[in-house]
Amino acid sequence: MVIGGTLLSVIISFVFQMTYLLVGYYMxxxxxYDIKWSMPHCVLTLRLIALTYxxxxxxxxxxxxxxxxxxxxLPFTPxxxxxxxxxYFPASFMVGPQFSMRRYxxxxxxxxxxxxxxxxxxxxxxxxxxxxxYLGVYQxxxxxxxxxxxxxxxxxxxALWKRHIYVGLWAKITLYxxxxxxxxxxxxxxxxxxxxxxxDANGNCLWNGCANVKIGLYEGATTFGxxxxxxxxxxNAWVAQYVYKRLKFxxxxxxxxxxxxxxxxxxxxxxxxxxxxxxxxxxxxxxERDLSNYVKQYPQLLAILNAGPLKYIKFVILKIYVIVxxxxxxxxxxxxxxxxxxxxxxxxxxxxxxxxxxxxLYAPAVKALIKAIGGQRxxxxxxxxx
Length: 386
Description:
Layout: H1 7-28, H2 38-58, H3 67-72, H4 80-87, H5 101-109, H6 121-144, H7 153-156, H8 160-192, H9 215-219, H10 224-230, H11 233-244, H12 253-268, H13 272-295, H14 299-305, H15 308-335, H16 338-347, H17 351-357, H18 359-373, H19 381-385
Helix pairs in contact: 1-2, 6-8, 8-15, 11-12, 12-13, 13-15, 13-17, 13-18, 15-16
C-alpha cells in the first residue's frame, strides 16, 4: 500500500518473487523433474509479478497504454481477499492457466458474463473430456517410448535416422502430458464461467478466455512458429506482455527476444537443460523467420510450392521436420542434467545445432539457390531506395 503502483514496487516484486522461486529450486531440486511445491509456486510467481505491473499501469494515462495493458490495468489496489481468491482459484493454481486480476474481478463481480449466465456446462465438459483423451494417449504412448528409452542401449543401437524419428515421437507423446493438464484445467475454468470472452458474429458464446493450447493449430503445425503460437499460450502471452514488450525502449528485437527466453529458462529452474532448450528455440525461430521472409520475396516460387501435389508433399515434409526437431529441442528440457542431454545430442550428431545455429554460415548459399530458381523477386522499399 505504501509503494503500490510505482516502478519501485514492480522492481521489488520482480526481484523478490524470482529470487524466492530460484532459492526454492536450489534448495529442493534433484536430478529429475520434481513434482513439489515449486510447481504451483512458479505459477504464483507470474501471477504476483503481473499484479504489481497491472497496478503500476493503472496509475498511468490510459491513452499511453498498449491495447494489452488497457485490458489488464488496475486503477486501484485489490484487497488481500481479492488477491487470495485470484491466486488460489481452484482451477488454475497448480498448472495455470494464467489470467489477469482484471478478468478475475470482473468474473466475481458478475460483469464478465453479465446478468444472463451463458450455457457453459457442455463446452466445459467437452474441453475437459478432450484433456482426459490426451491423458489416455499419453499413458499409452509413454509405455511404448518411456523417457528412459532415450538414454538406453536399445536407442543407441538404432540407425541415426531411426533415432531422430523415435525422438520426435517421444517428444510428441511427452507434450501430451502438459496438454492434458491444461485442457482439464481449462474445462473447469469454462464451467465456472471464468473463460467467457463474449460472443462471435453469429451470437455463439466464446469460451477461450483461459485457453492455454490451440489443439487444431498444434496438431496441424508445420513450423515451430505454429508450435509456439499453439502451446502454453497464456504463459507465452504473459512473457510477451510483461517482459518482451517492456523492453521496447532498448529498440532491439533480438535483445528483447533473448531476454524473454532467458527469463522463461530461469523461471523453469536452474537445470542446464532448460537453457539448452530455450537456446534452441531462439535459433529455430530466427532460422524460420529469416528463411520465410526471404522465400516470400519470390511469389512465383511460392505459387509452385502451394499448387497441385507439391503442396501435399510440402505439408508432409514440413510435418516430419516439426516432429523430428521438436524432439531434438525438447530433449534437454526433459533430461535436465548436462551429462544426459549432452549424450542425447551426441547421439544425434548435434544435427539440430548444425541446421539452426549454423544457419548464418550457409544462409548465403541457400538464398543464392532460391534466387536462381525463384523467378522474379518482389523488391522491398529498402531495395527500391538503393
